[in-house]
Design brief:
Largest sheet: none
Shape: rod-shaped
Helix content: over 70%
Order of helices and strands: HH
Strand content: under 5%
């Protein structure tokens, strides 16, 4: 009789341990899910902010590209003026004629 009682008590103990393990596992899952949900929310908000900043920077990028093209064209024109002035007969050096070429253009 004592052996059956021990056997029943062990079975009950095993059932209770299993129930406690399942309950703890469920609680840990809930904590993990909550933390993951909070992290997803944080990342989504950070992504929105970055998209907004990018939208504000796009026009500036276009302006920078236009300014770079203008600068390249200006440099090309300046080189051409320097060459023209250097090739003119009777020049006293490119300095004086570059100024005249800039004034004439």
């Amino acid at each position: 009789m004592a052996r059956e009682e021990f056997k029943d008590l062990r079975a009950e103990r095993d059932q209770l341990q299993g129930a406690i393990r399942r309950q703890l596992g469920h609680q840990l899952d809930q904590i993990s899910n909550r933390k993951l949900t909070e992290r997803i929310t944080e990342l989504t908000e950070a992504n929105r902010k970055l998209e907004h900043e990018l939208a504000q920077l796009r026009p500036l990028t276009d302006q920078v590209q236009e300014l770079e093209r203008n600068l390249a064209a200006t440099r090309t024109s300046l080189r051409q003026m320097i060459r023209v002035c250097a090739l003119e007969p009777g020049s006293n050096g490119p300095g004086g004629h570059v100024t005249a070429a800039i004034k004439n253009s």
